[in-house]
Every structure is written in C-alpha cells, then in structure tokens.
Amino acid sequence: MKRGPFLSFGSNMKVSVLCFITETQLMEAGKTLSPRRWHAAFSEDGHLDFAKVLRRIQRGGIHPAIKGLVWEFLLGCYDPNSTFEDRNQIRQRRRDQYTIWKAECTNLVPVIGSGKFVTTSIITEDGQPIIDPSTSNAQEWHVNNAVSDKKAIQWMLVLHQIVYAWVDNDIGYVQGMNDICSPMVILLENEADAFWCFDRAMQRLRENFRCSATSIGVQAQLSTLSQVIKTVDPKLHQHLEELDGGEYLFAFRMLMVLFRREFTFVDALYLWELMWAMEYNPNAFSLYEESSAATEKGVLTVSSDELLKQCGKFEKKNVKTGSSTQQSALAVFLVASVLETKNKRILKEAKGLDDVVQHGGMAGDIVTN
C-alpha cells in the first residue's frame, strides 16, 4: 500500500494501530456504529441516511474499521446527499489539487515531499504525537532507503502541516496542529484524503490557533467558561481565582486541541466523534466548498425542517433557539460540567492550577459521562 509517490506506508503499521484502537475502545453492543450499519445506510446510488448514522454515533461512537470514512462526512468533506459518483469526482479533484500544492511547496523547498528528511520524532509507537518540531532543536536526520512505518507517519504529519501552512497563510502552522492531524494520517489510507480531512477539521478549529501578542485563539471560550462557572458555582470560581486561575488558562490546551493531550489516543478519538456528531450541521459541506469569504461568515444556517432532522443534538438546539453559538461551545460546556462535578474535590485538594486538572480527574470523567 502506497502513501503518495515518495514513501511506502506499510500495511503492518496501519493494521497494528487499528487493532490497538479496536482492543482499547469501549464499544457497547447495539450502540456503536458498526460497519454493517454504516454500509446499510447508503442507497443503491450512494445517498446516505446520515440522520440514522448520527443517532448511532451519539450513542456509542464509531467502530475503528470505519472511523476514517465516517469522519469525512462528520467533518463536511462530503455531502450525505451526494452519490458515489459525485464523491469520486470530488475526491479526484481534491487529490489533484493537493498534488499541485505539494509541488508548489517542493519548488520552494526541494526537500519537501522527497522523504529524505524528517524532523525529530513527534509520534509514539501507537501513533500518539509526543514532540512538536517547533519546540525542539529541529535537528534533522537522514532516513535510510528502508523507511519504517513509524517514520512514514512522522513524515506525513510534517508534510501535511507544511502544505496547510502554505494554503492557509493567514493562520499558518501553529504548535498543536499535529495533535489534530495525526489521527487523520493514521485512519485514512490516501495521503491527499488525510490532508483534506485535516483541512476540514481545521475549518472548525482554525480560530483556536489564531494567536497574537495580545490575544489567544481560545480567549473567548475561556471567558465563556469563566462566566459559566461563576454563575453555576460562585464558590468554585472564587477558589480558582485565589489559585490565580480566574482567567481559566489551565483549560487553554484542552480547548485548543479538543482534549487531545488530556486523553489516551483512543479516548480522544471517541470524544471527538461524539462531539462532531452532536455539533453536525448538514450545510457544512456546502459552506466549506464555497469561497473563503463564505467561510468567514462562520454561521451554518438550517432553512428547513428536513435539514433540521439531520442536525446533531447540540446543533439542533442551537438552531431551534436561534443561537449563533460557535461549534466549539460544546467543549466549553464539557470542561464546565467536569469542574462542577468535581467541585468538592477541587475545593478540598487543589493547591495550585496543576492540581485542578489532576485532582479534577477530567479525562476519565468526560469520557465516562
């Protein structure tokens, strides 16, 4: 199995990672979206009954064997109302576009896409990113002709981030994007398909990475989190302020990369797909396919009852109430709910901001709940 024209991404690594996910993901019979139910949701010509699929994902997540395929729909890569032929045409067009962008990058820096150099390791044996190249000494080392699967994944991560920075020069590459990119590289076989899945995820999250000398991308979310806790639990809010945490910066990383580093690799994927299913809006595909000016509107409107039925639970409530809340609001409520659930332990044991996360037991509780 080939990963583009420059590297061999062996099947052994893909199989081992998927087996690892399968063995460790908690799946309840009758709740998880299975491959059988997924394939049964398509009509003969390829139209997808996504409302039925969403209900299943919201109850129990997605079976590891089909995660990558389902994510492409959850993230707006494809319209469920399209046919197999429609999607094949879109897929080929995107692969061609990715090839062009990669070639443009290669013209500027010939080593890009050659597979001859990678940065220091940013991924563990089970596919978890561990070191961001921008925070290391960025020493490069030569890759032998026999490229291992692990090194192939590392190179894909670096390559996708380079190309994304080339395409979205307003945001560019920011530390933490590799946390979003790595699951796509692992779950989707084709290099270009993985990139476009990453691109669609970044359409939702790009503002999280917009930072300047005076502001951070998740500042609005942190402010909302502060107001929520101040309202529902003034005593806890006061305690956090006394710990110098009134601005809730301890939750910065959780919100920026959607708890990617607070969870195991498997639990993070499970949480993401639950959130994406609950936030799903059927207009995502059409919005992302339009010009960049259209995406800056940031609002996905639902114009009919039929479309409303296809929305996720969280998004459906937003539409019914006329709320213009951004999709990232669900992550804010997740953090707030765990803080409130663990308020007694935090009030009693937390002596510093590090203790808020540690004693709060956030990771386990969010996934369990």
Can you walk through the features of this model?
By secondary structure, this protein is mainly α. Helix content is 57%, strand content 2%. It contains 20 helices and 4 strands. It has a two-stranded antiparallel sheet. The chain has a two-stranded antiparallel sheet with strand order 3-4. Helix 18 crosses helix 19. The radius of gyration is 21 Å and the shape is globular. It starts with a strand and ends with a helix. The relative contact order is 0.11. Mean pLDDT is 76; it is low at 1-24, 117-148 and 292-299.
Can you lay out the helices and strands and say which pair or pack?
Blueprint: E1 2-3, E2 7-8, H1 11-24, H2 35-40, H3 50-60, H4 67-74, H5 84-108, E3 117-118, E4 141-142, H6 149-167, H7 177-187, H8 191-205, H9 219-232, H10 234-242, H11 252-256, H12 265-278, H13 284-289, H14 292-295, H15 305-309, H16 313-321, H17 329-341, H18 343-349, H19 353-360, H20 362-368
Antiparallel strand pairs: 1-2, 3-4
Keywords summarizing the entry:
two-stranded antiparallel sheet; disordered N terminus; mainly alpha; single chain; 369 residues
- Which regions are unreliable across 5 or more consecutive residues at pLDDT < 50? 1-24, 117-148, 292-299
Estimated structural class: mainly alpha
How is the largest sheet built, in terms of strand order?
1-2
- Average of the residue pLDDT scores: 76
Could you tell me the radius of gyration in angstroms? 21 Å
Strand tally is 4
What's the N-to-C terminus distance?
A: 38 Å
Order of helices and strands: EEHHHHHEEHHHHHHHHHHHHHHH
